[in-house]
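#help-structures
NK: newbie question, is this the right format to request a structure? protein is Thiamine-phosphate synthase
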Amino acid sequence: MKYIEKLHYITHDIPHLSHIEQVQQACEAGAKWIQYRCLSKSDEELLQDINAIAEICDDWGTTLIVTDHVHLNGKADIQGFHIEDMDADFVKLRKLVGNDITLGGSANTVDNLIRLAKEGADYAGYGPFAITETKPNNYNLQGIEGYQQMVKELKAQAISIPVLAVGGIKTYDVEALMQTGIYGIAVSGAINFADDFIETYQDFYTVVKESAVN
């Protein structure tokens, strides 16, 4: 079973910080898991970003996951991919990238999670927890009760996959979320738009670690 960090930091296209600057600050704050999420650049631009980010992550011992763009596997020092397409075939993806690459997927129903687990995904992001401007969508908000119910249903079916809450999460939400029995948290906007990026990352990290029940 692959190592999955309990706090995932996700980069985003924002005006005041480049993806590289976001990663630099996150690593300085102690991040051990970076998800590079950029859906707006050409392959050449993506690889320029990823190569620079991979060097930073390597310096800090940080895992680098890339959102989608599986076709870039082997072209840069990427440890894994997070696939946002909820209909993606993870059996095919696993054959494509091999067993050493970490594969994560997005889900917003328990059925999604069960399929990801059965098809060999290493972890899943489940949400949205609350309204999020980072990744606008029309999915039902989960809230605390949604995560409680999801954990209960997975246990009842003996399904085991690390599940991370994602979408509009603030530091004051984390303790209650972790108490539901989920594996961890994924955060983007609450850190990117904070007055103090590094302090906010560290606040999230502390409360995730202190609140974990598994």
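mod (FA): yep, format's fine, and the tokens are attached above. DSSP finds eight helices and eight strands in the chain.
NK: thank you!
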